[in-house]
Amino acid sequence: MTTDFELRTRPLMPGFGVEIFDVDLKTAGSDARQKVVDLFHANGAILLRRQDMDPDDLMSFIGLFGEAEDHTQTQFTLPGYSKIFLLSNKIVDGKPIGAHNDGVGWHTDYSYKEEPVMCTMLYAVEVPDEGSDTLLADLCAAYDSLPRERQAQLDGLVLHHSYQHLMSTRQFGRMELSEEMKAANPDVFHPLVRTHPADGRKALWVSTGTVKGIVGMPDDEAQALIDELVEFVTSEPFVHRHKWHVGDILMWDNRCTLHTGTVFDDTKYIRLMHRLWVKGDKPF
């Protein structure tokens, strides 16, 4: 569905993402809310500042984009709201209430599943005065910038994604999975070049963390290519850096972006974010 209703916007960076102005998501009408959805699908990311959202508001808003997805680690979901995951270093009654430094390292969410999440939404409740920025990489611009010959070499390559590999090698929160977790998260295989279902644009859908190798390629050769491509897509021309303020809502399209969090002084500052996912479909 599209609408002729127009909103005031500006790009997050040339050719990627939009900041949307003058919309209060809690009270916005259906035309404005639908336009927000349309802008998301067309631009890869959206930002709305100065929002005041309770958990029910967040669930209502995320429902405009599709069905909310569950989270792999359920111990850090908001009580009473299993679809809202807490990212935080806050300690309450001697226990952490959220996952800390969970998103540090270039990745795309849920890529270890057959149907990775379509989009990720973060809502800022408490933010540090410095650090904890979120970086987004435009994978469509990266693919489009390649020579045709290089595109042809990469088209058709298949990446081996593994949750077990991620959790045993990640920088923060490393852990060995239980047999139950391994069974619930088997390895999957996704194309290196992904096609966006909205308009057919192609993304250089490489990642770190979950990517264990490339099908049919020796491990050392595959890792060298993965490292090369990640360095390329996360270079300055393709990356937007978001500095958080309380009330920010940032959403990005996992079908055409990579993202990473950044660290902050967790002895000095508290960070609390609400994260929501929307179910996706199988990459092609």
TrEMBL record:
Superkingdom of the organism of origin: Bacteria
Keyword match Metal-binding: yes
Domain TauD/TfdA-like: 9-277
Gene3D superfamilies, per the entry: Clavaminate synthase-like
GO cellular component: cytoplasm
InterPro entries: AtsK-like, TauD-like_sf, TauD/TfdA-like
Keyword terms, alphabetized: Dioxygenase, Iron, Metal-binding, Oxidoreductase
Gene Ontology biological process terms, A to Z: sulfur compound metabolic process
Keyword check for Transport: no
Family per similarity comment: Belongs to the TfdA dioxygenase family.
Protein's recorded name: Taurine catabolism dioxygenase TauD/TfdA
Organism: Parvibaculum lavamentivorans (strain DS-1 / DSM 13023 / NCIMB 13966)
